């Protein structure tokens, strides 16, 4: 039995409230997915509106997409602290409202720096949404149910991101470059309504052993380091694969897009299988499968001579990513007690996006020494080595002992 299972005592909402609560608990994956997809089709027009010249326009577009990561990192640190003071439900509802306000700022702001600030704040409130929504999953589900819920959440978040891209393209074509910012009003409004109806207040808990954010980090820092390192590798098909394909002579944007899309399609497949595999064979074996799939996929891209094999390797990577994404949340939930859950989940979010931002910095020396193909092969090999080490060290087979807690406020 995990730490959270030993101490979680809240009863689930019943009937219609539970039907509303289930999608509300998926708010984390939904809000994160929208950040990096809802504006992609209109970035050239947005950049032309705010940027000065071709170079300035490109930089403006890149910054609009990258500054939310800063907010996500800071929000991951701050969200756990906020949960302990206002509670998960209040934080979720308030963050959804502020997410809508900051996300939709492009509908009316006319200054590039104001847009940067709004996008940074959007990242902060996204982290708060993710931490608080995931707290409810830890509260209401046992070990097997948690895996199924996290699997469904990853699938729904990925499908919503895909729909957001399609909606953004239509809005941008027929209404204008500002119109896709309205997506940030629609989705939070639906999630806010569902959360207000379905999710009860989780009692604010304090630790009987004087737990603090520093204690949570010191106890789990190897886990956060592992998550950050794996997110560096997971970002390879977002930041580096186009350069790899170009070096192989695969320069057609259409063919490149088809290869890259395999990662997203098979991520959904991996997420679907995660709940079933975790329920039948346990968390640890499922996690090892995810690591093996990721390592073979990234390493295989380094060897792939043509688009067909590159697509197959990308699919393998996507399958591994679909397993690992919910597995990370599951691991942190299983290693947390109710009173430390918020801080633990928040630090997990921080480690994820530190890994995202670190990708170009980490990959640069590998490219300099081994070339682009060698960089993929090297990083894939390191993941496979990590899978072997995780197997022999027994990562995830034992849950930490439950810490005592007491409730202080409803």
Automatic annotation (TrEMBL):
It comes from the Bacteria. It is a multi-pass membrane protein. It is found in: Cell membrane. InterPro entries: MFS, MFS_dom, MFS_trans_sf, MFS_Transporters. It holds the Pfam family MFS_1. The chain crosses the membrane at residues 18-39, 59-83, 90-110, 116-137, 149-171, 183-202, 223-243, 255-274, 286-304, 310-333, 345-366, 372-392. This is Major facilitator superfamily MFS_1. It comes from Rhizorhabdus wittichii (strain DSM 6014 / CCUG 31198 / JCM 15750 / NBRC 105917 / EY 4224 / RW1) (Sphingomonas wittichii).
């Amino acid at each position: 039995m995990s730490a959270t299972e030993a101490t979680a005592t809240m009863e689930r909402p019943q009937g219609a409230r539970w039907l509303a609560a289930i999608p509300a608990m998926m708010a984390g994956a939904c809000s994160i997915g929208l950040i990096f997809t809802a504006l992609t089709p209109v970035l050239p027009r947005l950049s032309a509106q705010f940027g000065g010249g071709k170079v300035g326009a490109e930089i403006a577009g890149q910054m609009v997409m990258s500054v939310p990561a800063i907010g996500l990192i800071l929000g991951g640190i701050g969200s756990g602290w906020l949960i302990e003071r206002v509670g998960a439900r209040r934080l979720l509802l308030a963050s959804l409202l502020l997410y809508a306000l900051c996300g939709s700022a492009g509908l009316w702001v006319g200054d590039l720096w104001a847009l940067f600030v709004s996008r940074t704040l959007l990242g902060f409130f996204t982290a708060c949404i993710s931490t608080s929504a995931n707290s409810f999953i830890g509260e209401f589900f046992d070990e097997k149910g948690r895996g199924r819920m996290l699997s469904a959440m990853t699938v729904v978040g990925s499908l919503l991101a895909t729909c957001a891209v399609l909606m953004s393209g239509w809005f941008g074509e027929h209404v204008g470059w500002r119109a896709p910012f309205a997506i940030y009003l629609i989705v939070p409004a639906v999630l806010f309504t569902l959360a207000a109806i379905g999710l009860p207040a989780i009692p604010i808990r304090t630790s009987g052993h004087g737990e603090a954010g520093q204690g949570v980090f010191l106890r789990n820092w190897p886990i956060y380091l592992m998550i950050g390192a794996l997110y560096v590798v997971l970002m390879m098909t977002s930041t580096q694969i186009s350069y790899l394909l170009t070096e192989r002579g695969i320069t057609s944007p259409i063919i490149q897009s088809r290869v890259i899309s395999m990662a997203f399609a098979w991520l959904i497949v991996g997420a679907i299988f995660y709940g079933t595999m975790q329920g039948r064979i346990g968390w640890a074996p499922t996690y090892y499968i995810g690591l093996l799939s990721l390592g073979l996929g990234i390493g295989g891209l380094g060897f792939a001579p043509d688009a067909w094999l590159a697509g197959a390797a990308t699919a393998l990577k996507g399958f591994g990513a679909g397993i690992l994404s919910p597995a990370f949340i599951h691991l942190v939930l299983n290693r947390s007690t109710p009173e430390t859950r918020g801080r633990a989940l928040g630090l997990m979010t921080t480690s994820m996006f530190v890994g995202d931002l670190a990708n170009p910095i980490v990959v640069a020396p590998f490219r300099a020494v081994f070339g682009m193909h060698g960089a993929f092969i090297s990083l894939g090999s390191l993941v496979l080595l990590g899978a072997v080490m995780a197997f022999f060290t027994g990562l995830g087979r034992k849950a930490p002992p439950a810490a005592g807690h007491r409730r202080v406020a409803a």
